[in-house]
Amino acid sequence: MTHPNDVAVGIVGLGGIGSHHATKLTERGANLVGGMDVDADARARFHEEFGVPAYEDETDLYEDCDAVLVTTPNRFHEAYATSALSAGLDVLLEKPLAHTLDSAERIADAASDADGFCMVGFNNRFAEPVQVIKHYQDEGRFGETTHVEANYVRRRGVPGRGSWFTSADVAGGGALIDIGVHAIDLALYLLDHPEVVEVSGDTRSEFGGRDDYAYVHMWGDDAGPEGFDVDDSASAFIRGADGSTVSLEVAWATNRPATDEFVVRGTEAGATLDRGSGDLTVHEAGVGGGHHLTDASVETRDGDAHAAEQATFLEAAAAGEAPSINTVEEGLRVQRVIDAIYRSAETGAAVRLD
């Protein structure tokens, strides 16, 4: 059997997240064989930092690879993921699956016909506190998990205005498709991926397009409000066919304290997870010895979710078997919810998905 670190892996898209993945790969001793980007400066930086070839054409990279990570802007996910699958490679595709639902469905179709597999980059699932919650759920400690309050809210955190993140044509949306995709996926994962039957939501663009947008930190450079045509916050309610529900709050910018809190509610117990800090508390109640409420703090190791995600991907590629987690079907389910929230915001009405 091939060792995971012997899998020849390349990276398509050599910006910030591509370089982050390359760093994690080299830290684990993986066989990083090259990268690809249409930007010459990005190729030069990547070659200098990681000492491997960087190509302008993806087909040159694919010749050396068994697997690739696709970390391009959303609009280009389909082109590179489908070409890699057509070349027989395994693909780890950064979230979201695509910039539109139609594009995501084409990726899923390509993956279903391919010799390789497509895994979607929902790294939060691999965080150790999340895995503890899943373990308790599997043990039955929570009873039936019925609702998740999912929050991914920044007080001021619009990515570099003028970058592809703030362009609807390239990103497909704003805060909802950028960070909301993580919150939706994590909530559905904690509910064991129910069939979603109804979505109601609204999106807002209240801060990113202002000349007086006030911020302390910004990821990337600020080119000002011109061209900012995406949402900077969203609220939604999601119903599953099994009666489970999700309440969602997402924001790049809003006038309230930031929060990354996920509250999991079950019939026998619940939990509060701070996704950012990793703090986890389990909430229980009982009558033994007298009626009482218990809040138990759970301490875990400081795991690296991206590294664990890469390990799962490389192990699957080495074994020649698609992973059972982060499947393209799950990514498509999340994309359908995002699309439904945007449609609900446009129409002012709930959207049925059944």
UniProtKB/TrEMBL annotation:
SUPFAM superfamilies: Glyceraldehyde-3-phosphate dehydrogenase-like, C-terminal domain, NAD(P)-binding Rossmann-fold domains. It holds the Pfam family GFO_IDH_MocA. GO terms for molecular function: nucleotide binding. Gene3D superfamilies: Dihydrodipicolinate Reductase, domain 2, NAD(P)-binding Rossmann-like Domain. Residues 8-122 form the Gfo/Idh/MocA-like oxidoreductase N-terminal domain. Signal peptide: none annotated. Residues 131-270 form the GFO/IDH/MocA-like oxidoreductase domain. It comes from the Archaea. PANTHER family: D-GLUCOSIDE 3-DEHYDROGENASE (PTHR43249:SF1), UDP-N-ACETYL-2-AMINO-2-DEOXY-D-GLUCURONATE OXIDASE (PTHR43249). This is Oxidoreductase. It comes from Halorubrum ezzemoulense DSM 17463.
